[in-house]
Amino acid sequence: MIEDKNQQRTSLENLGEFGLIDHLTKNFDIKHKSTVKGIGDDAAVLDFKSKKIVVTTDLLIENVHFDLSYMPLKHLGYKAIMVNLSDVFAMNANATQVTVSIAVSNRFSLEALEDLYAGIETAAKIYNIDVVGGDTTSSTTGLIISVTAIGELNEEDIVYRNGAKPNDLLVVTGDLGAAYMGLQVLEREKEVFKVNPQNQPDLDLYSYIIERQLKPEARQDIVKLLKDLDVKPTSMIDISDGLSSEIIHICKQSKVGCDLYENKIPLDPQVISTCEEFKIDSTTIALNGGEDYELLMTISQEDFPKIKANPNLTVIGFITEESRGMHLVTRGESRIPLIAKGWNSLSDQE
Amino acid sequence: MIEDKNQQRTSLENLGEFGLIDHLTKNFDIKHKSTVKGIGDDAAVLDFKSKKIVVTTDLLIENVHFDLSYMPLKHLGYKAIMVNLSDVFAMNANATQVTVSIAVSNRFSLEALEDLYAGIETAAKIYNIDVVGGDTTSSTTGLIISVTAIGELNEEDIVYRNGAKPNDLLVVTGDLGAAYMGLQVLEREKEVFKVNPQNQPDLDLYSYIIERQLKPEARQDIVKLLKDLDVKPTSMIDISDGLSSEIIHICKQSKVGCDLYENKIPLDPQVISTCEEFKIDSTTIALNGGEDYELLMTISQEDFPKIKANPNLTVIGFITEESRGMHLVTRGESRIPLIAKGWNSLSDQE
């Protein structure tokens, strides 16, 4: 559909595992002093001296997390890195290294994997991270990508999920729901394409939401911004499963409640118009859509003057005592309990 | 075949991703001071102070790396950890943490995953490592396990693949080829079982080689032994793809050649008898069989007195100038070039 299928096609079989790793990673350079040894031994060797390190990992499975009929491989490589960096930034850390393992079936050509790694390389360049290891193996079916990301920070900068206090402000970066609505548009176009392969879709109206789905950016800029503003959040989490489930994580781990204001949730105009077109409630999408990769944090009221003028940060509610519970305050001013529908990849499966 | 199929069966669908992770990891305790924060946030937080850290990762895919018709899930969980720890020990490091991600289809029950995690927990206990993170997601087909292992060591203790020097001794731990022959026996029994499911196989004759396949141990003891003997290898690698391909890795990266003596390669009597039964040459199996998870190292001749009496270490050859090439010296004293057939999971696929 989007991908150009008329490419040269080199079979993987004769290249072998060692040749393949060497080939795919030969352009990857080392940027960090903390990377003592990258790809090429039994393990990478890292040196963080007095810094703390953070480690996070995610698995991406074809036809569960992505659909190659509309996800170009280069974008997929980029997104696989973003998904993991987002978790590093949610600790308020600086991302430094990743390992990338892939399993592929023989239906993938060398050129296809080169596209995937071009996306990984682009992400590594833009986000200044070293690719220090990985594993390349065969799969009996689709494509599987496993990324582990490592970051560094000083002890005093670590932000956990469990530090929110009553009266803290609930703050979110960027806008929400776009990635999910982008997915709805792509799914609809896939169905149209099945019926009429000659149809050339005009997706200009949906450019922002499709980009949010296919090429999300992790909020490295926010970690720097918070430092520049001299604000340390009391808690932080990245929004991968939808705002609602992430708020619940923070509240449960911090033993607090919250009031979230529906009319404060930041939505892009394209999300609003596409929700109208699909006859879906935009608040439901922002709460449960997932894959936004924005950051949700709580900030002490004292820090409000430092953040109030910043277009990247939106106050969407405040933290309460645990006994008050977790609520959405609707536009009609009724208080309804927050539920984590989230994006549950296990129950989504059937 | 080996696994007990008559178990309680709780469906994964209603449990959800968060419930599943919590449930499976609730018994995992933290043993290392370097683990500041384990499972439960966007990322684990680690603190290695002045130590260097090593990071390695591996993907295990159902029907590529394991066959559940004879691999009990508990053993599989154990083996998934061993495969990664082996790489940590091959750097001469102390393994400290792992992350474990799994993707499962709905054909797996909660009880099946509990078995898998029981194996992971057993490995973590015995090898004194902390499970600090992971991801649990659905798969459209089989079981996928991705493990990242982390270890620590002092800078002066790091052993790379590239430090072998001419006249160094080529030394291997344990014995070789058993895991591969264990696999051959299990594959044969699987075929017998297909024809006659009532057949109760007598596998006593093959107990050692089957255990080497189903429940390998990574050589943590060797890292300690080398320290106790005050021996630092000049190079080291773990034997996952077969002796031949690992020797070639060391020689290529160290820019040296080698003479490997066929009559010195350590073989267990069960490997020899099973090779005879299967009419396979045991040297070929030791060279190319794979999955031994022993360590191959090069040691300076000066250190020979320290290792010569040790039953865990066998001298199998010596390093030569690069121009001499890499050779196997056969029992008949002819010198034939070493070739890396190895265990190539990409070309093995078809």
Automatic annotation (TrEMBL), chains A, B:
The gene is thiL. GO terms for molecular function: ATP binding; magnesium ion binding; thiamine-phosphate kinase activity. Pathway: Cofactor biosynthesis; thiamine diphosphate biosynthesis; thiamine diphosphate from thiamine phosphate: step 1/1. Substrate binds at H65, E291, W343. Catalyzes the ATP-dependent phosphorylation of thiamine-monophosphate (TMP) to form thiamine-pyrophosphate (TPP), the active form of vitamin B1. Mg(2+) 1 binds at T57, D58, D135. Reaction mechanism of ThiL seems to utilize a direct, inline transfer of the gamma-phosphate of ATP to TMP rather than a phosphorylated enzyme intermediate. It comes from the Bacteria. Mg(2+) 2 binds at D58, D87. Signal peptide: none annotated. Belongs to the thiamine-monophosphate kinase family. The keyword Protease does not apply. The keyword Magnesium applies. Mg(2+) 4 binds at D42, T56, D87. It catalyses: thiamine phosphate + ATP = thiamine diphosphate + ADP. InterPro entries: PurM-like_C_sf (IPR036676), PurM-like_N (IPR016188), PurM-like_N_sf (IPR036921), ThiL-like (IPR006283). This is Thiamine-monophosphate kinase. It is an enzyme of class 2 (transferase). Keywords: ATP-binding, Kinase, Magnesium, Metal-binding, Nucleotide-binding, Thiamine biosynthesis, Transferase. Its EC number is 2.7.4.16. ATP binds at Y117, G134, D135, R161, S240.
